[in-house]
């Protein structure tokens, strides 16, 4: 093993250093302002290495990772599209990066302008009245939106409305958020084509229903054509419509949830609006509401005075605070730069291009892969594994084999509607050449499954680690060197 392939702790040599802190950086004359009971008693156990060791360690580590910047990443429902670097650069400008959340509003007018302006843009894009940008992620937005829903019914004295209808195909966060918001989940069935069964919905609509959570296009990538009827039924029963807008890509600039009858929604800025994601954050899940719900939005809120200045307000009817200060401002900056750089005209191309790319892959592969739902999909679609089920090759095997060919796997075994789900979302940022290469490799894997199935079952063969024990990886993760040594002992 080469020196630099070793773990950084194994390179440690007592006394070897890459950096030296200045003696008394904060001029404390040796008196630290940190309370003594919080001071470290023992030396930190850090590897003692040179700067070059560190540089090689992290550079090599980064090369072992797979990201949108290294290859095609068709992970359905996750919108792994390319995020232009200019947006990162703008978000990292010191004028914004160095702001402090406790600064007086008069000193941060530019930042408040961006918050307010972005909130207006999202309102225009989605057809709702006003947005809060405070939530930190999609699921956090769902919780916030459901709290708005609850607050609305309570404000009318309609306290028995404690149930939320969620389709059986919904993203797992939907029922989870409903539970956290103290609401009871009622499931509505989907038809074989993946859309909500209106006949199954009707009997659920009584005066205990707070609302319904939906997404459109739905989880299998199909547009719910009966949405206007569903909206009318739910509204007539006194409920509200919540839109899970985590994946706004397919609609961008074309269709607006507000126009479909939705009252509340969240958007994942870290999916549709140019923030890299997948490593666990930071994200942003703005929540938008229709005019009659604006007063319930969380505190604090940014307001614009008639003469053009901005100030911060807290509302009496607000559901309260759901984040510290205003959420993740850096993510808002990226979204703002992204929307402005596309402009009103170009943003209209995002949805159609994402849709075209998904349909191109779907139609090109349906001779080898089982397509359970025919017809034009939106930004993503689902295969139910290989068409030829006699080979013993599963969706998991195909997903692992794709890694050998340098592609990230699609989302697998979700949605639960099918046994061998393989959910593919190419996004609008990929070229036709890349799509063609992916299609070619998918055909190749299908051929291998027929001719040499074991080569697919044994995959991945070329990656740094082979097939992982995913249960242990999730339940007993080894996150540092000490834990690794203990596990090996
Ligand atoms: C990603 C996603 C979410 C959750 O978003 P997080 O930011 O991961 O909390 C919710 N709903 C759908 C449909 C999603 O794709």
Q: Can you put this structure into words, describing what you see?
A:
This protein is of the alpha/beta class and 489 residues long. 36% of the residues lie in helices and 10% in strands. The chain contains 16 helices and 12 strands. The strands form 3 sheets. A 7-stranded mixed sheet has the order 1-7-6-5-4-2-3, with helices on both faces. It has a 3-stranded antiparallel sheet with strand order 10-12-11, covered by helices on one side. A two-stranded antiparallel ribbon has the order 8-9. Strand 5, helix 9 and strand 6 form a beta-alpha-beta unit. Helix 2 packs antiparallel against helix 11, helix 5 crosses helix 6 and helix 11 packs across helix 13. It starts with 50 loop residues before the first helix and ends with a helix. 39% of the residues are buried. The structure holds pyridoxal-5'-phosphate (PLP).
List the helices and strands and how they pair.
Blueprint lengths: L50 H13 L21 H7 L2 H4 L11 H18 L3 E3 L5 H18 L7 E5 L5 H8 L3 E5 L9 H4 L7 E6 L12 H10 L3 E6 L11 H4 L3 E4 L1 H4 L14 E3 L11 E4 L5 E4 L15 H37 L15 E4 L10 H10 L6 E2 L8 E4 L7 H20 L1 H5 L12 H6 L5 H8 L1
Parallel strand pairs: 2-3, 2-4, 4-5, 5-6
Antiparallel strand pairs: 1-7, 6-7, 8-9, 10-12, 11-12
Helix pairs in contact: 2-11, 4-11, 5-6, 11-13
The chain binds pyridoxal-5'-phosphate.
Pyridoxal-5'-phosphate (PLP) binds next to α5.
What is the strand content? 5-15%
Termini, distance in Å? 21 Å
Proportion of helical residues: 25-40%
Walk across the major sheet and give the strand order. Answer: 1-7-6-5-4-2-3
Shape: globular
Q: What ions, cofactors and ligands are bound?
A: pyridoxal-5'-phosphate
Structural class of the helices, strands and pairings?
Answer: alpha/beta
Biggest β-sheet: count, sense, barrel? 7 strands, mixed
